[in-house]
Amino acid sequence: MRQIKKIPSKIPTFFHEYKGTAIPDVDVAGYRLVVEGEVSNRLVLTLAELEEMAMATEVQRRFYCVNGWSLSARWFGLEIRHVVQLVRPAAEARFLRATSIAGYEDTSSVHELVNGGAMLVTRMNGEPLSPERGKPMRLMLFNKYQFRGVKALARIELVREYRPGAWVKYGYTDSSIQPFPHLAIESGEYLMPDAELLNAFEPEE
Ligand SMILES: Nc1nc2c(c(=O)[nH]1)N[C@H]1C(S)=C(S)[C@@H](COP(=O)(O)O)O[C@H]1N2
Ligand SMILES: [Mo]
User: Other C-beta atoms within 10 Å of 186: how many?
Assistant: First the structure.
């Protein structure tokens, strides 16, 4: 039986790879995002290099979690369509796989990312991303559930093959945003529960 020791008072956000442990800080000076796979122009980018690109923009958009809440904020970064133009993937490489520093991954259709204005985000509401929010860089989707939007990005690959990510393995076969009402949160920065609260959830047997 499912046991909940304590009812959370905050909206749980998710960082599977650090569940129950402290989210480590990231050394921004040593950080590099690698974009590779079936591309003619492999990219290695520092945080500053991405932020200084002329195509970088800021948008006010809402993202949706499959667990029924949504969050609107200002996001600064680079749209995936620019990343695709820069690396020039092979025609067969129709998927984009994103992997976090600690190994959480998900794979999305490049077409869906480009169409939905997906971005590599480095700032939320004008501030650099906090470790909870995916410092120093995250992928963000606005037309699909955010479990595909990998936080604390280490690597992007343009690939031929789809591979199910963490949430699809849990049984979410379709990442389309469902029409039921989501709990709407406006620009909240302090939503991440502490480790104690995360531990209050007992996994289902
Ligand atoms: N690396 C990593 N990225 C992740 C996740 C994760 O567990 N690990 N969870 C995803 C899910 S399910 C959601 S809803 C959002 C939560 O983003 P937030 O913490 O900014 O609310 O991050 C997504 N990106
Ligand atoms: Mo989520």
Answer: 9
Is the Cα torsion angle 89, 77, 68, 184 positive or negative in sign? Answer: negative
- Half-sphere exposure in the Cβ direction for 132 (13 Å, CA): 13
Ligand nearest to the CA of 103: 1
Q: Does residue 8 have a pLDDT over 70?
A: no
Q: State the DSSP string of 30-69.
A: T--EEEEESBSS-EEE-HHHHHT-TT-EEEEEEEE-TTSE
**Alpha carbon of 14 to ligand 2 centroid (Å):** 6
* 98 pocket-lining for ligand 1 (C-beta < 6 Å): no
Is-contact 158 110, C-beta < 8 A?
yes
pLDDT of residue 15: 86
Ligand 1 atom at minimal distance to the Cα of residue 16: 7
Q: What is the pLDDT of residue 172?
A: 87
- What span, in angstroms and rounded, lies between the C-alpha atoms of 56 and 114? 15
